[in-house]
Amino acid sequence: MSRSDTAFLFDLDGTLVDSVYQHVLAWKEALDKEGVELSVWRIHRKIGMSGGLFANILLRETGLEITEERLARLRQWHAEAYNRQASQGSVRPLPGARELLAFLTEQKIPWAIATSGRMQTAAHNLEALGVDPSKVPVVTRDQVRHAKPDPDLFITAAHRLDCDIHKALVIGDSIWDMLAAQRARSLGIGLLSGGYGQEELERSGAFRVYEDPADLLWHIDEVVARS
């Protein structure tokens, strides 16, 4: 795939920003506040999918009644808990994230960010990365009908770049990113920086797996042709 034909569509949490476990703890706090007892590891396994779908599945697993009011409370409490952690400086770019984005910009390779998070929580991450949503296409959960594992976020991001989604590379850290990439008929690249294992990502459709953004940048010639 030539560089001129390639676009990079990035997930945000766990892919460019080291924020997965802050989200896990924020969801844990929200669920505890709602009186929902759930182990932290079960929460982590759902991180990366749509927040609404995430909450629905967790409540279904616990056998509790699912209401719009309860889901709204959980989303709000999660956002408050996450933003509190982020404001304390615990959310930072992953190794090589800024350098990878700078390289793509320098090489005139288009890129965008597509996150299942809402702008209410994504804003801290974008600020940590130094990404200005007014200058770079950023698609959040607020802007699409369905989030991951549905492909809407990545399809919308490709559209904003005016590129063919079938020639785009989807970079993510979760199986939900890889499933969404498959549904969009894009190639998926997995990163281990969100806590999922290599075999899990490959089984979900990743055609290459790297440790983090720095590792991907080091091996960039494996996914795009040299100019």
From TrEMBL:
The keyword Hydrolase applies. InterPro entries: HAD-like_sf, HAD-like_SPP, HAD-SF_hydro_IA, HAD_sf, PGP-like_dom2. GO terms for molecular function: sugar-phosphatase activity. The keyword Disulfide bond does not apply. Keywords: Hydrolase. Pfam families: Hydrolase (PF00702). SUPFAM superfamilies: HAD-like. This is HAD family hydrolase.
